[in-house]
Design brief:
alpha+beta; elongated; two-stranded antiparallel sheet; 65% helix; single chain; 10% strand; 13 helices; 5-stranded mixed β-sheet
Length: 459
């Protein structure tokens, strides 16, 4: 290879390197970018990396500043990428920590390989060819190792949705930041010029051939384990929140059932008192006190209306929930249609069915509140089909529904986000108790949630 050919190779090598590392970064970010305009968002990440890498090749930036500046750029455009700033920051740190750690591990192998290939003294073309082959092998081996390490990190991060408050972000950033700083220090020491002589760290201290790769691997493993620990804690918090919400819902349903029992007690009392009421009405009519009679009847009607259950589904639990949601919907101007019949015989726990209805209808009402008046509707159906019970809730909504990795809609609530978005998770858990499933769809501004339950006696 001639000197001119080597220069051309070096320029092409720089471009290929930028494209390769940009592709690895984009692939690492890809699962965390939302679906809307996803290709355009990923193209933005790749373009920023490639353009900045090419600019850096033409300028003399201080060593180690590339990753810092690129991380700042990605955080600055996080809104266009569709990922939170904290998550972009952590992803960038993990990427550069893995890149530096894998680079240090490959560097030791590269040093051994270079020493196993004696440096030819002539001709010069052979020297250029040897250098081109070695750097190509280094790039390919580094890319493969980096891809494996990034895939492992990505797989772990996708197991649980990551919420990153400042304290947790600092905790997760500690190890990868230390790994990056360690890599920068070692990179400065690998090759030094002193008194016109080239000094290589591995030549002066051969033991570092094993020590530095091990330390680099430990920094990577520390970052991986920190992510795994955070995921485990996040899952535990989610389970606690889920059980807390389910407990609160069960307590609320029990309280409303108690009110319903009081209602039926009042009805029985009213039945016994009806003879006295009829006697009073008759007396007022006979005496011609029609004004008092109208007032008396109005007070009786008002007293009865407070204990009215308009819809009867066949079970006290579902009666209470459906009637509560119906009254709330009417107050909000929502057209509420019901065709729900509780299945008999009792192959289902009424509280499980109640939790399903409570969450589905609560979500439907909240979605309808954002819809313009006149277009708000909720349709509830519940029918038994053989040994299966089908519950379906349809409602109007506006905007776009983004489904997360778990198949559930991502919550749009920012305040106490960890406590929101778990209603449908509770529905799914209740359905799974009956070997059932939850299906969700959003089409033409109509959201549909369908729950299929299998009768326990048939399990």
């Amino acid at each position: 290879m001639s000197e001119t050919g080597f220069r051309m190779f070096h320029q092409a090598f720089s471009i290929v390197t930028a494209l390769l590392y940009a592709g690895l970064l984009t692939a690492f970010v890809q699962p965390f970018v939302p679906q809307g305009n996803k290709r355009r968002r990923l193209l933005l990440v790749s373009s920023i990396y490639i353009l900045f890498a090419l600019v850096c090749n033409q300028t003399a930036l201080p060593q180690g500043s590339f990753g810092l500046i690129l991380t700042a750029l990605l955080v600055a455009v996080s809104n266009w990428i569709g990922v939170e700033k904290s998550q972009v920051f952590l992803i960038s740190l993990l990427y550069f920590n893995a890149r530096i750690s894998s680079g240090l591990m490959v560097e030791s192998l590269y040093f051994v390989l270079e020493r196993s290939m004696p440096l030819p003294t002539e001709p010069l073309e052979v020297i250029y060819l040897r250098a081109a082959v070695l750097v190509t092998l280094f790039l390919l081996s580094h890319a493969v190792m980096l891809a494996v390490m990034l895939f492992a990190l990505q797989r772990q991060m996708r197991k649980q949705k990551m919420l990153l408050p400042h304290r947790e972000l600092c905790y997760l950033s500690l190890v990868p930041t230390s790994g990056i700083l360690f890599g920068q220090v070692v990179s400065r020491l690998l090759v030094e010029f002193k008194d016109g002589m080239l000094l290589q760290l591995y030549e002066r201290h051969p033991a570092f051939l094993a020590v530095i790769p091990v330390l680099a691997l430990l920094f990577y493993a520390g970052a991986y384990l920190a992510i795994a620990f955070q995921q485990g804690m996040a899952k535990l918090r989610e389970e606690q929140a889920t059980h807390y919400v389910e407990h609160q819902q069960t307590q609320a349903i029990r309280a409303r059932i108690h009110e319903a029992e009081q209602f039926y007690t009042h009805i029985r009392q009213l039945k016994h008192e009806m003879r006295g009421h009829l006697t009073n009405i008759k007396g007022l009519a006979q005496s011609g006190e029609y004004a008092s009679l109208a007032d008396y009847i109005a007070r009786m009607d008002k007293s009865i209306s407070h204990f009215e259950l308009t819809l009867q589904t066949g079970n006290p639990v579902t009666d209470v929930i459906v009637n509560d949601m119906r009254r709330r919907s009417i107050d909000l101007g929502i057209c509420f249609q019901v065709d729900f019949h509780y299945p008999e015989p009792g192959g289902y726990d009424a509280f499980d069915v109640g939790i399903i209805l409570q969450n589905l209808l609560q979500n439907a009402v909240e979605a309808c509140e954002k819809v313009r008046e006149g277009a708000r509707f909720i349709v509830l159906t519940g029918k038994r089909k053989g040994r299966f019970f089908l519950i379906e809730v349809k409602n109007a909504f506006i905007g776009e529904v983004v489904f997360g990795q778990d198949g559930l809609p991502a919550t749009t609530k920012q305040k106490d986000a960890s406590m929101h978005g778990i209603g449908l998770a509770n529905v799914r858990r209740a359905a799974e108790k009956y070997m059932g499933e939850l299906e969700l769809s959003a089409k033409r501004q109509e959201f549909s949630a369908t729950v299929l339950l299998q009768e326990r006696g048939s399990l």
